[in-house]
Specification:
9-stranded mixed β-sheet, alpha/beta, 18 helices, 5-stranded parallel β-sheet
Amino acid sequence: MSKNLPIKQEVFFVYLHIKNSMKQFYLFVISSILFVGTIKSQSNKAAEGPFSQLIIRGATLINGNGAPPIGPVDITVENDKITAITVVGYPGVAIQESRRPILNNKGKEIDATGMYILPGFIDMHGHIGGDAQGADWDYVFKLWLAHGVTTVREPSGRGLAYTLDLKQRSVNNEIIAPRILAYTGFGQGSKKSISTEAQAREWVRKNAKNGADGIKFFGAEPEIMKAALDENKKLGLRSACHHAQLSVARWNALHSARAGLTSMEHWYGLPEALFEDRTVQNYPLDYNYQNEQDRFGEAGKLWKQAAVPYSDHWNNVMSELIDLDFTMVPTFNIYEASRDLHRARRAEWHEDYTLPSLWRFFQPSKISHGSYWHFWGTEEEVAWKENFNLWMTFINEYKNRGGRIAAGSDSGFIFQLYGFAYIRELEMLREAGFHPLEVIRSATLNGAEALGLADHIGSIEIGKSADFVIIEENPLKNLKVLYGTGAIKLTEGNKVVRVGGVKHTIRQGVVYDAKQLLREVKVMVEIAKKKEGFKITQPGN
């Protein structure tokens, strides 16, 4: 969102097209270090394939469905489809070569001995940059793929046509990109405000005709929401909703689920469904929604106003949402600065991988949604820590009782950087109480189920698409090894080293060198810094 525009409106985002200067900058970068033509013709080998046959040998398999690791295995892929998963031995024992699948003369093999292979990650809330952030798709896509993200649900952005163009170019392997699903912001592209049920249904039908995969709602009049969700459901499309405070007093998450919403973003609307002794949030009488600190400062007190955990009302709301097969995408990470501003602001990857324009966007401003902290202090952080505890309790128990939790990042705001923030989301699911295998399932199969794609992606099974993450360290023991910056480890010889970082990301059979993609992002940032004479400094200095 532009610094020259008001705060994000709770109807939808409208992003402007990239400025000519940014276009020139990224074209220069692309021509310097990326590709000419299709992925198959790249000279730098950041991406290879797809291949008629691909064999990944000797890895330990974490298949995404909750099963424990098994290995070593050889995985055979033919024309993007997994055709065989072959157990080729036992840990610590020499592999029986006679068991191994044979590589044909046009095939490609990857020696993953001692490594771990997981399904490609699914980011259920991934904005493809923004004009105000100065973050174009090439920068964003490389950061996602470098962290194992092979599928992204784009919940409204710069317009449906823009997203569908990138989606098709990804399908065609014309660009380095994950698989993209385009969810249009409700009302986006309409020449006038949607004020009747008939208008709502007409917009939904047009959205489907235009090729959208679903709709992202922010809230509307109850009769409008009912009509739009009903029409969308009839058409077989899926939906998401950020239950904005401007509408949530009349339409909360439970209302949406009953009307046919398939997933909710963040957590707004859920505490409101859990109210017992009130119908609206306890707003201070001098509150102003347009003041970002008011908005988020008071949001940090909201869960304490809801029914207490495991009470009758709390249990009943949870049970009904589970019965409705309702998916929750909490995006914990995007609010982490609320409970620990210093941590988010000083994350080590900012120096090398955050563009100057994006860093400026993260600074406090009264007219921008890039960051909401105007005078954020101890009292706000303590309130948010209590908020997180209650929120995480609900999410973990929802999972325990059979509810679906999927992973989404909402990167590009409040010091959360694309790719890196997704891994932080996995860590926060672990903090909420998820076993690491449950974390991986939320990042893979659960997302695929929520998207209606579980027959094709989300787990490593015969017949599914070849979407993989290959890493040299065990992510179940330490999720931090998934960060592009790796994890710090002290060796037996008392030496400090960095280990981890995704080695290969494979999307639909295309093999990406994850570390090379990160190097290319680093070059982008270096060029941008040199052009401006920019150096990251902390706010107020």
